[in-house]
């Protein structure tokens, strides 16, 4: 034995060593025992950190994308003098990040805010962290006190608004949690280890205690710590600003925007809403913009599958009527879009502007606000209950000023139209009764009921839609048809006051005084409004020349004005009448004096008078003009088609227009004229024609006046219509005179056009 006593007489044996007896071998084995597990662990770490890193870090690196809309302003509508008729007003709203209004504050958010203000070393000091947390809470309290002071809202109202927002979001959160609980399985599934997922074969559970021990060792070594399947629920609303105040004073908005360091977590957002500063002025022409309904948005989505070119969405203000509808594509502002990339904590990591804001283009009108206001005021006055007037004076042949002393007439509605005879530009286009355009943007139930239940139909656009019998204002066209057919203007007929029988086809003077006009030529017939003259002329011509001339001057057709929903009226003719309504000789007689089934709009009649005044050019009326006021700067570059009128010139001889103009001059300026007492103006010579159109048995007549001024160098055509207003000369004529007087005062009709006649 190696440790036994050695004998010197015995031969020593050769030593024998095992492979582990040598110290270096044992070290190698020991090193290998440590190295192999280390290699395995190292391999696993490399696998997890390099090859499978994304499986574990994607949750922390995940970002969300949010599109932020930048509101656009719709274009303004301006009158010829630059005054605003329609404009988008800015309404400021206060939005606060939910974590800044939440009470009590979220602990994780509060901790992050405190840590963001401390250095790494300070974060390890609990006292400093606690002190910073206290500072943050004080800042929150002071901020809400500043908000109350700046906005003028009491702290109690602010707290109520905050609580309302928080209650809403907490209810949403509770609903989501309850839904998650309902969707959870009854038994939880065991969590598989990463080793099991990466192993090519599953290890059987019944292989013995050694294999179980090895499996547990693997699981402890390779499986990550267990995590809750569902972490704390955080709604998107908790990471976004919430609206606290719907209306914020501009001074408060400026203060918050100027000092963002004093108002962390606050946003001032701008919302535009349409207003009409002139209120009732031109409300029928302007129309209205109201929010787009959900079903309408769906319909637009079907119409444009690739995307709405105007980007209309539910709640956006859409042009519904008038100019707001006709020029909606020009006035519509296109919102801007900004793409925000947020990390999992809601912090913005990237901002990209995907579409720039495009504000709507302004719309300039030829409308003169003062003339429009004057016309509307005269109409509103005319619609008030009137006083019974005395009959006219037969010695002056003022037959159209006659009213029955036993009847008082209150018009149901009315219209005044003034257009430039050279360009077709509309200077005034009034309808009555009117309404405040601001009411229609968001009417209450009571306001809407009042507007829709009014029998006078205040929402009715009478300028282009009210088609009535024009009465004697149509006689100039009958005169044109006769002259173009070869009739001599100086050829006289004898008027006994009736055509064939005293009971029918009579002149108004015969109906009231039992006399006729005597020997009458064309000028006399227009001046004194002799029905018998035009009856005989129509009987001689037949219906065809009348209908053809009426078509030449645009009756029975749309004028083409830049307003929606225009009515064409009705021009009867033997060709269009059906078998159930045959054409009778009496229809020709009625057509000659503007009765029968003839219906025209005020704008059509104004267009006709403009054609007589300008030499026979039939213009297309326009409200839009490309020439904006010099002192007004447009928000956006004005786009759209030119307002140069489309001209259609009926083939008329100069002598025809001269004879008709002479007759229209005498209507107002001759002592025998039907408008001499009520329309003649000392300052300006006016030409025109009165009309009292029968509306049917038991209802009042329609009152008309159609003319132009000044007589020598015509500038403007004017039409006044009162629906069931009575006498044209007595009711409509004075209104036309006052409008022209006001235009003269404003300088629209120059002083050089003074009348020659004196009172």
TrEMBL record:
GO terms for biological process: cell wall organization; peptidoglycan biosynthetic process; regulation of cell shape. Residues 70-351 form the Penicillin-binding protein dimerisation domain. Residues 389-413 are annotated as: Disordered. Residues 394-413 have a biased composition (Polar residues). Its main location: membrane. It is a single-pass membrane protein. GO terms for cellular component: plasma membrane. It is found in: Cell membrane; Membrane. It comes from the Bacteria. Keywords: Carboxypeptidase, Cell membrane, Cell shape, Cell wall biogenesis/degradation, Hydrolase, Membrane, Peptidoglycan synthesis, Protease, Transmembrane, Transmembrane helix. One of its GO terms (molecular function) is penicillin binding. The keyword Membrane applies. The keyword Cell wall biogenesis/degradation applies. Residues 414-740 form the Penicillin-binding protein transpeptidase domain. InterPro entries: Beta-lactam/transpept, Beta-lactam/transpept-like, PBP_dimer, PBP_dimer_sf, PCN-bd_Tpept. PANTHER family: PEPTIDOGLYCAN D,D-TRANSPEPTIDASE, PEPTIDOGLYCAN D,D-TRANSPEPTIDASE MRDA. This is Beta-lactam-inducible penicillin-binding protein. The lineage of its organism: Bacteria, Pseudomonadati, Planctomycetota, Planctomycetia, Planctomycetales.
């Amino acid at each position: 034995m190696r440790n036994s006593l050695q004998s010197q007489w015995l031969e020593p044996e050769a030593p024998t060593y095992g492979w582990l007896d040598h110290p270096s071998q044992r070290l190698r084995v020991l090193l290998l025992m440590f190295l192999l597990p280390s290699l395995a662990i190292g391999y696993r770490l490399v696998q997890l950190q390099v090859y499978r890193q994304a499986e574990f870090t994607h949750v922390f690196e995940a970002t969300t994308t949010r599109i932020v809309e930048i509101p656009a302003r719709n274009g303004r509508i301006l009158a010829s003098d630059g005054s605003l008729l329609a404009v988008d007003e800015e309404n400021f709203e206060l939005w606060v990040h939910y974590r800044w209004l939440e009470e009590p504050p979220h602990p994780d958010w509060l901790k992050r805010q405190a840590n963001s203000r401390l250095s790494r070393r300070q974060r390890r000091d609990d006292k400093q962290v606690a002190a910073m947390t206290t500072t943050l809470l004080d800042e929150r309290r002071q901020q809400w006190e500043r908000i109350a002071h700046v906005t003028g809202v009491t702290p109690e109202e602010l707290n109520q608004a905050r609580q309302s927002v928080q209650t809403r979001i907490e209810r949403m959160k509770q609903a989501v949690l309850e839904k998650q609980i309902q969707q959870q399985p009854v038994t939880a599934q065991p969590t598989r280890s990463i080793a099991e997922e990466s192993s090519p074969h599953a290890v059987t559970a019944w292989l013995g205690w050694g294999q179980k021990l090895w499996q547990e060792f693997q699981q402890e070594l390779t499986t990550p710590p267990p995590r809750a399947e569902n972490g704390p629920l955080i709604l998107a609303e908790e990471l976004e600003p919430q609206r606290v105040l719907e209306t914020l004073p501009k001074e408060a908005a400026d203060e918050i925007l100027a000092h963002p360091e004093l108002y962390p977590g606050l946003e001032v957002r701008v919302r535009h809403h349409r207003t009409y500063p002139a209120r009732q002025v031109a409300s029928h022409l302007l129309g209205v913009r109201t929010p787009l309904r959900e079903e309408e948005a769906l319909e637009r989505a079907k119409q444009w599958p690739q995307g709405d070119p105007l980007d209309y969405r539910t709640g956006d203000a859409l042009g519904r009527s008038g100019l707001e509808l006709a020029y909606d594509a020009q006035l519509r502002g296109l919102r801007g879009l900004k793409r925000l990339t947020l990390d999992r904590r809601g912090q913005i990591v990237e901002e990209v502007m995907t579409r720039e804001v495009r504000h709507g283009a302004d719309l300039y009108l030829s409308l003169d606000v003062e003339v429009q206001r004057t016309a509307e005021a005269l109409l509103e006055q005319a619609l008030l209950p009137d006083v019974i007037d005395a009959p006219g004076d037969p010695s002056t042949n003022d037959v159209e000023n006659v009213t029955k002393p036993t009847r008082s007439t209150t018009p149901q509605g009315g219209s005044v139209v003034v257009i430039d005879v050279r360009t077709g530009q509309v200077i005034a286009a009034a309808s009555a009764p009117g309404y405040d355009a601001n009411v229609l943007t968001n009417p209450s139930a009571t306001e809407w009921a009042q507007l829709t239940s009014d029998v006078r139909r205040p929402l009715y656009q009478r300028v282009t839609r009210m088609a009535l019998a024009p009465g004697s204002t149509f006689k100039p066209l009958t005169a044109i048809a006769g002259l173009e057919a070869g009739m001599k203007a100086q050829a006289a007929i004898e008027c006994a006051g009736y055509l064939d029988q005293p009971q029918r086809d009579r002149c108004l003077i015969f109906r009231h005084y039992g006399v006729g006009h005597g020997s009458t030529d064309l000028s006399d017939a227009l001046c004194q409004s002799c029905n018998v003259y035009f009856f005989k002329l129509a009987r001689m011509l037949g219906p065809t020349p009348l209908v053809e001339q009426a078509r030449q001057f645009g009756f029975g057709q749309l004028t083409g004005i830049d307003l929606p929903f225009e009515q064409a009226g009705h021009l009867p003719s033997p060709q269009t009448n059906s078998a159930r309504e045959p054409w009778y000789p009496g229809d020709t007689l009625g057509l000659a004096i503007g009765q029968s089934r003839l219906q025209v709009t005020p704008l059509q009649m104004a267009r006709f008078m403009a054609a007589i005044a300008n030499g026979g050019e039939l213009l297309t009326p326009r409200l839009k003009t490309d020439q904006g006021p010099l002192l007004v700067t447009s928000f956006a570059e004005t786009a759209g088609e030119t307002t140069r009128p489309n001209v259609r010139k009926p083939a008329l001889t100069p002598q025809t227009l001269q004879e008709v103009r002479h007759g229209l001059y005498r209507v107002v300026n001759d002592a025998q004229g039907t408008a001499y007492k009520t329309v003649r103006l000392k300052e300006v010579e006016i030409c025109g024609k009165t009309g009292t159109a029968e509306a049917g048995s038991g209802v009042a007549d329609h009152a008309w006046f159609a003319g132009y001024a000044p007589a020598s160098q015509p500038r403007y055509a004017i039409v006044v219509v009162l629906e069931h207003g009575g006498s044209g000369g007595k009711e409509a004529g004075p209104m036309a005179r006052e409008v022209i007087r006001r235009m003269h005062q404003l300088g629209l009709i120059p002083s050089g056009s003074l009348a020659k006649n004196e009172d």
